[in-house]
Design a protein that fits this description.
4 helices, about 0% strand
Length: about 55
């Protein structure tokens, strides 16, 4: 993707569904869904235990 050439609307069309999923998965404390769009390195940081702890706090 050529982000600098994309309009704000085009970027939001990509980012909004990802963010909506992230927020709902946090509310549901659903780790698998929460990290589905993460890169492998970030998935290592956001473990199931880590997510559950943060969401419950």
């Amino acid at each position: 993707m050529d982000w600098p050439k994309m309009s704000d609307e085009e970027i939001m069309d990509i980012a909004s569904p990802i963010m909506d999923n992230l927020m709902q998965a946090s509310t549901d404390i659903n780790h698998e869904r929460h990290v589905r769009d993460f890169c492998p390195e970030l998935k290592e940081v956001v473990t199931k235990e880590n997510l559950e702890k943060q969401c419950k706090e």
